[in-house]
Write a structure and sequence with these properties.
The complex is a heterotetramer, with 2 copies of chain A and 2 copies of chain B. By secondary structure, chain A is an alpha+beta fold. Chain A is 23% helix and 28% strand. Chain A has 2 domains: 140 residues, P-loop containing nucleotide triphosphate hydrolases (Rossmann fold, 3-Layer(aba) Sandwich); 27 residues, no CATH class. Chain A is globular, with a radius of gyration of 17 Å. By secondary structure, chain B is of the alpha+beta class. Chain B has a domain of 82 residues: 3-Layer(aba) Sandwich (Rossmann fold), CATH 3.40.50. In chain B, the strands form 3 sheets. A 3-stranded antiparallel sheet of chain B has the order 1-2-3, covered by helices on one side. In chain B, strands 4-5 form a two-stranded parallel sheet. In chain B, strands 6-7 form a two-stranded antiparallel ribbon. Classes of the chains: A alpha+beta, B alpha+beta. The complex binds adenosine-5'-triphosphate (ATP) (2 copies) and magnesium ion (2 copies). The site of one magnesium ion has 3 residues of chain A, from helix 1.
C-alpha cells in the first residue's frame, strides 16, 4: 500500500486547473522557491487524512483553504483534494486495488463558516467518521509524527521539558 | 496510565539512543524524566553530547545541533508508532551541507520500508530522491513539474523573474 | 507615553513600507495597530502582499515569506535607532538562494555606513563579504581562520572528518 | 569608529589559546559547520556590550560561559573577552585612538554563582556602570536590534500581535 496520486483543485495556492502529482514508493523530494506552494501540498495531505483542525493547515477556517484567485482572478467557490492509494495488499480496509479518497469543501453562503464538507471513497459518498476509522486502522492518520510540518523541528528543539513530556502523553 | 507512559518513555529513549549517534556521527544522547516516580509531575529532559564535546542539555547546543537532536527524537517517535507514509517539511533548515546529507542518507534508507516525501531547499537532498518535483508559482497560482535530471531543476532565478 | 509609542509606530511603519518591497521584490506591506485610540490595549498587526499574491496577515504566509517580513521589520527598527555596528546571525536560514542574495545585496549596501557581521551557512552570502572567516572546531575547541578566496572555504567535509 | 579586533580566551567553546578576530569596516561574513562556534562569537560581543542577562548568552550563569575543556581537557577557571575599537572620530567618550574594553570572569569558589566579574578600559579597572554608560552614548549597546541572535527572525515571524507591540514599547 502506498500513496500513488494526489489531485488538488482550488486548494490554497493551487488554482482551478487540477494539479496531479504522481508518486511512487521510496523517496520523493519536492523543492522550489519560497512561497511556491510546497507546504501547501503537505497541507493537502493533512486536509484529507488529518482531523478537523484548520489551525494546522494555516488557515482561519475552511473558507481560507479555497483558492483566493491569486494576483488577478476572483476567488473560487469550492476546493477539492483527492488521494489515490495503491491497495494491492488490502492494508486499507476497502476491497479494491486502488482506493480514492476525495474531500471537497463548498462555500454555501457569505460567511466564512458557511462551508459544507463532502467526503467520497471511490466515488461513493462517505463521512468524516468513516475516513477517520479507515485511516487509523491503516495507520495513515496524522496523530503520530508521520507528517512533520515546517517549523516542527525548531518547535521541539526549543520546547520546554513539560511540552516534551506532553508528546509522550499523546503517544501513550 | 502511568505504566503506559513509562512503557512509551522506555521505548522512545531506546530508539533515541540508537538514532542520535547516527545523525550526529558518533556522539551520544539520552532522554530523562525529571520525576521518574511521578512522571506527570515533571517534564522530559533531553541531553546530548555532540562528537568531541561534553554532554549538555539540549538548551545549550548550537542551532544545528539542537535540530539534530530534535530530528532524532522525531524519528524515535516514528519508529515507536510506524506509518506507511511520511512527510518531512524542511527538517534540514538549520543544518550545514554535511549534516543535511547525513539526514538524506538516513531517510533514503528508511524509504525502503515506507514511503517518504521530503520538502527541502538544499540541493544535496535532491541527489537521494527516487522522484523529484519542482514547485513554482506564477500570478499566485502554484504548479508542479516532475524533474527527470537534477540539472533540470529550474534555477530559482528564472522562475522568480517569471514571477514578476 | 502614548504619544511616544505613536511616534515610534509611525516611523517604523514608514520604514517597513519602504524596506519590505525591496526585500520581496515588488510586493507591499504595512503595520497596523489593533487599537489606534488605546494602543496599549491591542497588539501590532503586520500584513504583507508578496509579489503576485493577495494581501494577507503574516500568519498565512509561507515560511520564507514570513522570514522576509520579519527581516524587513528588524531593519525598520534598526533604521529608527541606528547603531555603528550590527550582527546578523543566520537571518537567511529559511530563504532560498534568490531571496538570500537579495538580503546579502541589501546588507552590503548598508555596510557602507555601518559595520556589519553576518553569520550564514549559505555560500551565496559569502560572495558579498569584504572579509570572510571560517569557524571550525576540533576536540571541542573552536578556531577561526581568515579566508582570502571563497574557494578556500574548507569544505565542511574535510572539517567534519577532522572533527572525529 | 568601528570594531577593529575581538580577543576571546576560554570563552565558551574558544579555548585557552586566545583567538584574535581582526575586523574592518564594511561587511564581514562568518561561516562554518554546525556547532563550530559562530554564534559564540556573537555571544562574546553581547557579553561585553550587553547587559547582565546570561539567558541571552545561552548559559545558566556566568560559570557556564567559561570553557569546559572540550573533549579531553579540564575546564578553565576564568574567561576573558576583549573588544578593541578604532576611535579616531572620538564617538566613544574616551580620549584615545584605540579603545580596549576587557571583561573577565573568574571562578572563585565551587558554586556556579561564585564568579567574580572584572571590567577594564585601556587596561585600567572600570565597572559595569561605566561600560553601560559609554556604550549607550556611543549607541553600541544591544538594547535595540543591532545584535540579531540566531532564531530571532523565526521568533518575530511567529510572534503574537501583543508581543510585536511590546517591541515598539521597548523602543519608545
Ligand atoms: N486560499 C489561498 N489561496 C491562494 N493562495 C494561498 C491560499 N492560502 C495560502 N496561500 C498562499 O500560499 C503560499 C504559501 O505557500 P507555501 O507555504 O506552500 O510555500 P512554500 O513553498 O512552502 O514556501 P517556503 O519555502 O517559504 O516554506 C503563501 O504565499 C500563501 O499566501
Ligand atoms: N562553556 C563552554 N565550554 C565549551 N563549549 C561550550 C561552552 N558553552 C557552549 N559550548 C558549545 O559551543 C557550541 C556552540 O557553538 P555555536 O552555537 O556557536 O555553534 P554555531 O557555529 O553557531 O552552529 P550552528 O550553525 O549550528 O548555529 C555547542 O556545541 C556548545 O555545546
Ligand atoms: Mg514551506
Ligand atoms: Mg549558530
Amino acid at each position: 500500500m502506498y500513496l500513488k496520486e494526489v489531485y488538488m483543485k482550488n486548494f490554497k495556492s493551487f488554482g482551478k486547473q487540477t494539479i496531479v502529482v504522481k508518486l511512487s514508493q521510496g523517496l520523493t523530494v519536492v523543492s522550489g522557491p519560497n512561497g511556491s506552494g510546497k507546504s501547501n501540498i503537505s497541507d493537502a495531505l493533512l486536509f484529507v487524512v488529518g482531523g478537523q483542525r484548520t489551525k494546522k493547515l494555516r488557515a482561519d477556517n475552511y473558507a481560507g483553504l479555497i483558492f483566493d484567485g491569486g494576483k488577478k482572478g476572483k476567488g473560487a467557490k469550492s476546493a477539492e483534494v483527492k488521494l489515490i492509494f495503491s491497495n494491492d495488499d488490502r492494508k486499507i480496509n476497502v476491497d479494491s486495488d486502488l482506493v480514492e479518497f476525495t474531500k471537497k469543501i463548498k462555500q454555501k453562503g457569505k460567511g466564512p463558516a458557511d462551508v459544507k464538507t463532502y467526503y467520497y471513497i471511490n466515488g461513493r459518498s462517505s463521512s468524516r467518521g468513516e475516513f477517520h476509522n479507515i485511516f487509523s486502522v491503516a495507520r495513515l492518520s496524522s496523530d503520530g509524527y508521520n507528517v512533520v510540518q515546517q517549523g516542527t523541528v525548531n518547535d521541539i528543539a526549543d520546547s520546554t521539558p513539560k511540552q516534551r513530556r506532553g508528546i509522550l502523553d499523546d503517544m501513550a | 496510565k502511568k505504566e503506559k507512559l513509562m512503557e512509551v518513555f522506555e521505548n522512545i529513549d531506546l530508539n533515541f539512543k540508537e538514532i542520535y549517534p547516527k545523525i550526529c556521527r558518533n556522539g551520544e544522547g539520552y532522554l530523562h524524566l525529571e520525576n521518574k516516580d511521578e512522571p506527570f509531575e515533571g517534564g522530559l529532559i533531553i541531553r546530548a553530547r555532540p562528537p568531541g564535546k561534553k554532554m549538555r542539555d539540549i538548551r545549550y547546543l548550537s542551532g544545528g545541533e539542537k535540530s539534530q537532536v530534535a530530528i532524532a527524537f522525531i524519528l524515535a517517535l516514528q519508529r515507536y508508532d510506524p506509518s506507511p507514509f511520511y512527510v518531512l517539511d524542511e527538517v534540514d533548515q538549520n543544518l550545514d551541507m554535511v549534516n543535511s546529507e547525513v539526514i538524506a542518507k538516513m531517510i533514503k534508507k528508511n524509504s525502503a520500508s515506507a514511503q517518504f516525501i521530503m520538502i527541502s531547499l538544499h540541493k544535496i537532498i535532491m541527489n537521494f530522491a527516487d522522484h523529484l518535483y519542482a514547485c513554482y508559482i506564477k500570478d499566485g497560482i502554484s504548479r508542479m513539474v516532475a524533474i527527470q535530471n537534477i540539472q533540470d531543476i529550474p534555477s530559482y532565478d528564472e522562475d522568480e523573474k517569471d514571477n514578476e
